[in-house]
């Protein structure tokens, strides 16, 4: 029987990793954030009162086993048309299937069949959540897309409404997991919104499976400016308590000058790996060359990261 891996996050980093993981004989469950409120997802969320489909769409496509043209169709974004402009077809299909089945998680499940998805894709909660950030100066900024634009340093993030429940299937898959992976993804706007859903962290802590956090390679403007790898880890521990991370996977070699220059235009810089501080937190540090540079864009090397994750799972089981 295949080992079970649960990956928690959102954004492009999660999709990149899943494309690599699905090439190995493992059972994958992706738990994906429903805090997105920008772009097409934000509009559908407001107009149709459905959870934001964007991150879910990208994960479905990453795990899909269909012809490239079908994938292209699902990701197609309309450029004009009254009301259609800016929407991706996949987002509209997810919204439509939610309306037909009366339930977001069921809608995802039905679309998964159409796309021949390898694994399970689950929303962290079965309803939209609103992400808020309390800044170091005490001010509160509301909205996942607004937080990085505030120009202030984040102290903590939290969710509303008060009555949010984790999808029972998420908790079941976490209990059965042989490995739990946090990230990759934006710390405060992709990874933590999942962990803040009541029930998720409690279930992770109780699990005997090894828990791995994949640290970001570059800082993000307005979110993790000047953060080291230990700062990223502290961001998770300060929100979730101890025993939620056993291992941290970090990219430990320099990136090229051309990449640095390109990212500097977005006020982003390589995340410094302060290994001594990480080890003081009691986590095991897995350090290697984990990225691919492609046209001055950095992406995790999905196959290499997947192999490192499978190695951790083997050593702990």
UniProtKB/TrEMBL annotation:
Key words of the record: Cytoplasm
Organism: Alkalihalobacillus alcalophilus ATCC 27647 = CGMCC 1.3604
HAMAP family (UniProt xref): Gluconeogen_factor (MF_00973)
GO biological process: regulation of cell shape
Keyword Protein transport among record annotations: no
Task of the protein: Required for morphogenesis under gluconeogenic growth conditions.
Keyword Cytoplasm found: yes
Primary residence: cytoplasm
Name the record gives this protein: Gluconeogenesis factor
A cellular-component GO term for this protein: cytoplasm
Subcellular location: Cytoplasm
Family: Belongs to the gluconeogenesis factor family.
Molecular-function GO terms, alphabetical: LPPG:FO 2-phospho-L-lactate transferase activity
